[in-house]
Amino acid sequence: MPRSLSIYIHLPFCEKRCDYCDFYSTLDFPALNTRYRSTLTENIAWAGRQSQFASRPVQSVFLGGGTPNLYKPDAVAEWIDSIRTHFLLSPDAEISMEMNPEFIQSSAQLEEYHRAGVNRLSVGLQSLIPAELELLGRIHSAEKALQALNVLRSSSFSNWSADIIYSLPGQTVPDLQQTLNRVLQFDPPHISAYSLTREAGTRYDFRLTQGELSEPDEESQLQLFLILRSALGHAGYRHYEISNFAREGFEARHNLHYWRFGDYLGLGAGAHGKIGFRHFFYPDDLQDYLRRSSDGDFEPQSETLEPLSALLEYAVFKLRTAEGILRSECSTQRWTLLHQALTKVQSKLGTEYFLFEESGIRCNFEAWLVLDSLLLELADMLEREAKPAIC
Ligand code: SF4
After folding, report:
1. Is residue 11 within 6 Å of ligand 1 at its C-beta?
2. What is the distance of C-alpha 231 from the center of its chain?
């Protein structure tokens, strides 16, 4: 059975840049959306003609951005139809689309996206507190987000995610609880909760530098993470990845495919893909993408990871998930190197962060609390112990 594939489609347009975001997007939708739409359709067809993908079933598609909902359902249908024509799109494939709350107005409108082929929505609520939305520079209000949730509840989308951001400057435990309580009233099957991070060059970064805002200290971040996990655990969600929670059977298949180190194509300006240990990408440059594609040049740039970086990348992804590193998915060499390195990290730190089992190695919750520093230790250990064996 050929290994499955996922497809990520990047739609690099926004109405306004949010203060914390460093994803690639432009404000050029009015001028460039028509040309981008047809170019993307050609890009899908071009990728489908690459023989290495011909026999691989596509198990998920994700339309992300940017703000994908700037495009009407007919454009979305065109891309999904093109994927169906040029790839082996599985009949039960998960087809997700990011959607911003200010856009969700009626269930009839959502129905059109459903008919276009989308069967899962990822709704960027971020917060339901007005001051927090303002701090993030979001275009929508808390009231608008609640209206969107009401519309969503009456639509035929049974699979959707409420996406929130926490660890905001000044955010308290009751603030986070307030957003969570309100979101939970709508019983989302899936919740993504990402901690706000400081990205260079954003307005948020600038405001921190100016001293206008201060990042929450480690203790507050820890408290917020604990509240998040406990509130969602009590509400029946499984914490299946460090930033993701789902009801049974509603885990994001597309994201799980990434975290399980599966292969995926990234199509569109600024999109990234990965086949094995080779990374492919189209640069963050819409004009360049359009110019090259008008000459029929859809070849993405690529780079192959060094064996050590590949091993570390594999471990980083897998340790973020509750299932961890599965022995059955590893070659003997990969399993041995990771087992040895993680055993040494554990004994160096003197804390039982990793659970070593017959079927694999996974993090316990305490490890997730300090995962970044554990991964630095792992990188260091692999550099010293594994490099001579694999490079
Ligand atoms: S968070 Fe979403 S809507 Fe805001 S700038 Fe980034 S991509 Fe655009």
Report:
1. no
2. 22
Ligand 1 proximity of 66 Cβ (cutoff 6 Å): yes
Q: Is 268 left (phi over 0), alpha (psi -120 to 50) or beta?
A: left
Residue whose CA is closest, atom 4 of ligand 1?
18
Q: Are residues 215 and 345 in the same domain?
A: no
SS3 category, 123: strand
Reading the block at residue 152, the tokens are 């969503």
Tell me the chain's radius of gyration from C-alpha atoms.
21
* Secondary structure of 161-185 in HEC code, one letter for each residue: EEEEEECCCCCCHHHHHHHHHHHHC
How many CA atoms does the CB half-sphere of 124 hold within 13 Å? 20
* Residue 294, in any domain of the structure: no
pLDDT band (50, 70, 90) for residue 391: low
Q: Do residues 268 and 12 make contact, with C-beta atoms less than 8 angstroms apart?
A: yes
pLDDT tens for each residue of 264-280: 999 999 999 999 999 99
| 311 and 186 within one domain | no
The pTM score is: 0.95
Same domain as 226, residue 138: yes
Q: Count of H helices and E strands in the chain?
A: 15, 15
Query: Taking phi first (over 0 means left), then psi (-120 to 50 degrees means alpha), and beta for anything else, what does residue 211 get?
Result: left
CA angle centred on 6, ends 194 and 125, rounded to 5°? 30
* Count of beta carbons in the 10 Å neighbourhood of residue 129: 17
* Parent domain of 96: 5-259
Ligand 1 pocket, residue 23 CB under 6 Å: yes
pLDDT tens-digit series, residues 5-27: 999 999 999 999 999 999 999 99
| Domain annotation covers residue 300 | no
Residue pair 65/21 in contact by the 8 Å Cβ criterion: no
Whether the pLDDT of residue 306 is over 80: the answer is yes
Total domains in the fold of the chain: 2
Q: Is the CB of 153 under 6 A from ligand 1?
A: no
